[in-house]
Each structure stands twice: as C-alpha cells, then as structure tokens.
Amino acid sequence: MQQRGKSLNTEGLTLEVAERIGVEVATKEDFDVLEALVKSVRHIAREEVRRTREEHGGQFFLNF
Questions:
Q1: Model pTM score
Q2: What's the rounded Cα separation, in Å, for the pair 27 and 10?
Q3: How far, in Å, are 13, 18, 33, 60, 63 from residue 3 at the CA level?
Q4: 29-11-55 Cα angle (round to 5)
C-alpha cells in the first residue's frame, strides 16, 4: 500500500487483503473473520517493514 501512496484503516486493509488473495467477503461473518486475521498479523507486518526500512536506509514505511 505504501507504494501506492495509500494509508488504510483496518476495514480498508481487510478489503484490500481480500482482493489481493482472491477471497470473497460475502457476509458480515466472512468480513469479521478476515478482519481478525488482519489485526493479528498487522504488528508483524509493521515490524518487518521497520526492519526492512532500516536495512535499506529509510526507503520503506507503513502507515496505519
């Protein structure tokens, strides 16, 4: 998302993830399950981007 210049809230990020992995979110329950997964790995993604940014001299960022 950073490369597109976008910053997403959890709802937007969840829908973006669904689109990228080809998962259909047909019901509220589907969305809730995927959102819980996104929330659970979000901190891992932030840490990985932080590490990558440090390795590459600050070229990467993750806005949430």
A1: 0.64
A2: 17
A3: 14, 18, 27, 9, 11
A4: 125
